[in-house]
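[Automated response] Your request has been received and processed.

Submitted sequence:
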Amino acid sequence: MVWVDILLCVTAAILAGISVFSQWRHECNIKAFSLRLREDAASLLELRYQENWHRQLESAQDFTETVIDTSTATVRSVHMGIAKIPFDTLESFAATRDTTRIVRQTHDLISESVYTSIRGINKAAGFLTRAGIDMKARRTKPVLPPDEEK
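Generated structure:
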């Protein structure tokens, strides 16, 4: 009978130990899960911040490109309008008409080349800037641990 009591006590102690160990393991899992949730929340906040920053960069780039394009068109228009005055005046005289036409054509050709080049460079710079922003956005996305990648 004593052995049965001892066996019952040992069994109760083992079951109590298993219960305590199971409880401790459960608490460890909860703490680890809680920590992972906090890490994921921080990663999500960082990702949202980066996305917002990239949107602001894209908006600033679009705005800058538009301002340069509009300013170039305005300067071109004013320039051509001002240049037209002396050319029209000189073309009204027979003695200077032929030479003035050649000079005007040369002036207009060079001017159009310059303004077209400015617009082209602006578009290319805008394209490269957008590509750089997009590359930066792709590189800053969070990397999932191997067990979560799909």
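Summary generated for your ticket: The chain has two helices and no strands. Residues 2-91 form the longest helix (90 residues).
If you did not submit this request, please reply to this message.
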